[in-house]
Design goal:
With 280 residues, this protein is of the alpha/beta class. 35% of the residues lie in helices and 21% in strands. It is built from ten helices and ten strands. Helix 4 packs antiparallel against helix 5. It is globular and about 65 Å long.
């Protein structure tokens, strides 16, 4: 198998992954074909155990496929000579930021990754300052991470990834432990990163978090069972329960209003839009 191809993006080619177990193995990902391009946001949704987090770890070579292949900008994740290049191109932000924070102060934590890659001091200073500015933590460089709020800790974890200058970022349930304000901040930051040209994989089980994605992929028992726009997915209301998903509260309200005979557009997803439909 050749080492590189002139292809940009993260590409999954008929990927399967099986975890070893006493009874012969558990297939977590089964025959997944998926491509994520620079500047594109793909949301991956599904119930717990559907294979979402396994897909995240496959994306940058922390796991290797049992079958099939994963390529990052043409480089196969199974080829050791590309390991560090791939992991610097594909950053992962996990659910619990405390598991990613290693520094005793904010700037030390952000500098950890690029410093270990041998980045020069002037470049390191620039990367740290730029990353903190992007995530909204400028002015907090000397603060101790344990003094940050949950949302600030998650933004610090994102800054640590950004300091590696990744082309792609995988967010694995990044808002699961946050309050509404922190959740809103992180979602807005993800959208900004997409506009700045980063390829984004957003793994979540909250359908309310995927409205700005270019595409939503539904995983069930390790397989892609649906792929399309957010509107396409929300139009599959009769199958969401089967896939372990729920309509966002505001869409449930729209559906209930429709059932009661109130004329509200089916795609209404903002309170002001709904109100203007009820009282033009």
């Amino acid at each position: 198998m050749e080492g590189t191809r002139d292809t940009h993006g993260i590409v999954f080619e008929s990927v399967c992954f099986t975890y070893d177990s006493a009874d012969g193995g558990i297939e977590a990902v089964a025959g997944v074909d998926l491509a994520v391009a620079p500047g594109e946001m793909t949301a991956v949704v599904g119930r717990n155990g559907s294979g979402k987090s396994t897909l995240a770890l496959l994306a940058n070579g922390l796991l290797h496929p049992s079958e099939g292949a994963v390529r990052v900008d043409g480089m196969y994740t199974t080829e050791q000579e590309h390991t560090w290049d791939i992991r610097s191109r594909v950053g992962i932000v996990f659910q619990n930021p405390d598991n990613q924070i290693v520094g005793t102060i904010v700037e030390e934590d952000v500098a950890f990754g690029p410093e270990n890659l041998g980045v020069s001091r002037p470049e390191l200073r620039f990367r740290v300052d730029s990353a903190l500015e992007i995530v909204g933590l400028a002015g907090m460089a000397r603060r101790e991470p344990h003094l940050l709020s949950g949302g600030q800790k998650q933004r610090l974890a994102i800054a640590g990834v950004l300091a590696l200058n990744p082309a792609y970022i995988v967010f694995d349930e990044p808002t699961a432990m946050l309050d509404p304000a922190g959740r809103s901040d992180v979602l807005a930051l993800m959208e900004r990163l997409r506009r700045d040209g980063h390829g984004i994989i957003h793994i979540t089980h909250h359908l309310s978090d995927v409205s700005t994605a270019d595409r939503v992929v539904v995983l069930s028992q390790g397989r892609i069972v649906h792929a399309g726009s957010p509107a396409d997915l929300l139009g599959q209301a009769d199958r969401l329960g089967e896939w372990g998903l729920e309509l966002p509260p505001i869409r449930r309200m729209v559906a209930e209003l429709g059932r009661l005979g109130v004329n509200v557009p089916a795609d209404a997803d903002e309170p002001t839009y709904i109100a203007s439909s009820l009282w033009p």
